[in-house]
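**User:** Once you have settled down, spend some time on the protein underneath, comparing sequence with C-alpha cells, and judge whether sequence predicts the C-alpha cells.
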Amino acid sequence: MSGGIDSSVAAMLLHEEGYEVVGITMKTWDYASSGTSKKETGCCSLDSINDARSIAVDRGFHHYILDIRSEFGDAVIDNFVDEYLAGRTPNPCVLCNTHIKWEALYKRAEMLDCEFIATGHYAQIRKENNRYVVSKGVDNNKDQSYVLWGLSQDLLAKTRFPIGGFEKTAIRKMAADWGFHELANKSESYEICFVPDNDYRAFLKHRVNGLEEQVAGGNFTTSEGKVLGKHKGYPFYTIGQRKGLEVAFGEPMYVTKIVPETNTVILGSFEELEKKEMWVRNLNLIKYGHIDGEMEALTKIRYKDPGTNSTISLHDNLARVVFHKNVTAVAPGQSAVFYEDQDVIGGGFILK
C-alpha cells in the first residue's frame, strides 16, 4: 500500500470480498540520499505512509511498514546508474516491480503466513494451459502490463490484481463512495520515485563523484565520424534526444548511438534514427514459455509506445525482432514487451 488511490482501493476491495488483508507499505528511498532539497512526496513520504496506515486502521486490518532501502538500492538504483554509465537507457520501474514489489514483498508475505500478494496495478491475470498469463488492464489509458514482463510463473501464481478490471473513474468513485473523498481526488506522480525533480543528470552527478570531470568534453559526431561539436558527457544523453544538445547544426539532429568507450555521442537525421530490426536479451516468456520458429506479435519498445506489428524468433538466449514497418528511437536498456492481442507474451531488455 503506497498510500495512493489504486493500492488503497485494491486493499479495500479484497477486504470487502472477505479476505483477511494485511497492508504492507515499503520504504524504498529517502530523498536526503538524492542530494535534493525538495520536500518528500510520493510513495516513500511520511504523508503517504500515514495515508496507507489510516486506510488500514479505518477498515480494521493490520498494516506494516517495511524498510527495504538496501534491497531497493542494490536492485534498482545501482542498476540505474550502471546502465547510464554503460551508454544505455535504464528501465527502473521494471526492475522495481520484479525485484521489489514482488520478490521482496513475497518474502515478507510468507513470513506473515499470507497466501497471496495483491497490488494496485492496472493489469489482469488468469490461468490458461497450466500457465499464468498477464493481460492488459481494462483501462487502456492506465494499463501497466508493460512493466510486468519480468514476473516469474511462481510469483504470478500468488498474485492478484483487484483493480485490473476497472476504469480509473470507477476506482475514484469507489473511494468517494466509501467516504475517502481526499483519496478519491488525490493527484498522481509520474516521476521516478528516487529522482524527485525528474532530473536524472543531477542525480547521476550526485551519485558518482567526479562524473562531470570524467566524461566532459567528448565529441558529437556523425555516423561517418565527422566531428560536429563537444558534448557534456555521454551519460547525459539518450537515444532519440533532439532538444538540449546545445549545438547549432542548421538542421534537426537526433542522438542515434552512444559509445561510452570513446565518450562519443553519434548524431543523425530522423531517418537514421529509424530501425527495422532489434535484438532483445534477458527474456522472460510468460504466456507460452517458449517460442518455436517465428511468431507474430505487437512489440512495444517503451511504456507509452502503442506498439508495432513484428515477427519474433529465438536465437539461443536472445530474441530477434523484425518490425513490419520502421520504428524510431530503439534505446538499448529499455524494455521490449511482446503482445498477442491483450496478453503479454513476454519481454526483455533491448540489446541493440
Remarks:
- Residues 5-120+162-184 form a domain with the Rossmann fold fold (CATH 3.40.50.620).
- Confidence is low (pLDDT under 50) at residues 36-41.
- The first helix runs from residue 5 to 16.
